[in-house]
Amino acid sequence: MITSHNAAETFEHGRQLAGALRPGDVVALCGDLGAGKTCFVKGIAAGLGIAQEVTSPTFALIHEYRGGRLPLAHVDLYRLETVQDAINIGIEEYLGGPGVTVIEWAEKIESFLPARTVRVHLAVVDETTRSIEIT
Question: Would you state the pLDDT for residue 105?
């Protein structure tokens, strides 16, 4: 269990995780609204060497970023309800692909995630503090 005292630390924990990620890795992010999931993804992108600004794909559902050590697919399932909804947007193309896939609200497709998935749970402790559990 990691304690993050601010957004900069949450970003840094994501950046550090990126160093261990390899082609085909999936990172499943879970946590309430405002827990820091997108901030963590921004850190992963920075750790992969991606210079583009990372934004939440809540309405686009998937943003792809290139130019780093590995491509990054940033998926947000907030607006989806079922595994079939995720299949309909093409989630299968990203799982085990040539880059890293990071999925916000991944609990919605838990049964569909690869066995090797890195699971990250972010929880709000107080206004600025978050707990981060990586398994």
Answer: 95
Query: Which of 88, 110, 114 lies closest to 101, judged by CA?
Result: 114
Between the CA of residue 17 and those of 25, 43, 110, 120, 132, what are the distances in Å?
11, 8, 21, 10, 12
Tens digit of pLDDT for each residue in 53-65?
999 887 789 999 9
The answer to pTM > 0.85 is: yes
Low-confidence ranges of the chain (pLDDT < 70): none
CATH classification for the domain delimited by 2-134, as one of 3.40.50.970, 3.40.50.300, 3.40.50.2300, 3.40.462.10: 3.40.50.300
The identity of residue 76, as a single letter, is: D
Total number of residues shown for the chain = 135
Could you tell me if 106 and 114 are in contact, meaning their C-beta atoms sit under 8 angstroms apart?
Answer: no
